[in-house]
Description:
The chain is of the alpha/beta class. Helix content is 49%, strand content 13%. It has a 4-stranded parallel sheet, with helices on one face. Helix 2 (44-54) packs across helix 6, helix 6 (146-163) runs antiparallel to helix 7 (168-194) and helix 7 packs parallel to helix 11. The termini are far apart.
Amino acid sequence: xxxxxxxxxLFSFTLLTFTACGSKNSETNTVPSQGxxxxxxxxxxxxxIASAVGKDKVNILTIIPEGTEPHDFEPKAKDLENLNDAKxxxxxxxxxxAWVDKVLQSIDxxxxxxxxxxxxxxxxxxxxxxxxEEHGQYDPHLWLSLKGAKNQAKNVKDALMKADSSNKDYxxxxxxxxxxxxxxxxxxxxxxxLAVSNKSFVTGHAAFAYLCRDYGLTQNSVEDVFAAGEPSxxxxxxxxxxxxxxxxxxxxxxxxxxxxxxxxxAKEVGAKVETIHTIESKEDNKDYxxxxxxxxxxxxxxxx
Length: 304
């Protein structure tokens, strides 16, 4: 009898250990939500900014899957469910997520704090009539500017302080630390860009207008702001002439944008192709500041 009891106890202990290990493994890719503020964001750049401010006090869920272009995304029923029990919903704004208003009207979460992270920014207006008709009047790529990201971080900080007032000092400190990183990086590269005479670079699609405004630079791009369609023969000829005239040695191409035309252009003008970060998806496990430092360094090197 004692032997049977011993075997039963050992078996039970083994089963419990196995079950606990299984539970741990199944949650490897999730953030424990107990005691944390649930924040739903639209895509990776928003996640990076919210994480910099919320750190370990927030549980962040990203709606748009990795590798999916935010312009083209359509939310699913599960996305609405996640918003129904979230405290904060952070999105980029400026027409980046055209579906937001419709989704917010369809959910039943009266306490949800909705954060248009572009609020208070100096938005750049689109000038192409077709783009305005299809996507709205503003360029949405605010997060690719250090100044823009600082504005977005402030907006999510204000929301976190409202949703979780007991930790408002924590969020304020994190925001100030992040803002200092952004300001320091801006100042470092402002000096570098002021020192070069060449101010023009070429990208796969026109995503860097805010960065250009920050530093007095000019982008010339294969595709438009929303990376829609391939350029005409006339546009390609203009780009080729531009590259030759301005001694362009690097053509930047972005993730999720076809490199075919950029590669052809680079070959035509004797330039190399380099990948630049848009941060719309997680890239090489780098955080926001790391990605932006690499972007700025690559652009600077291309101008020297």
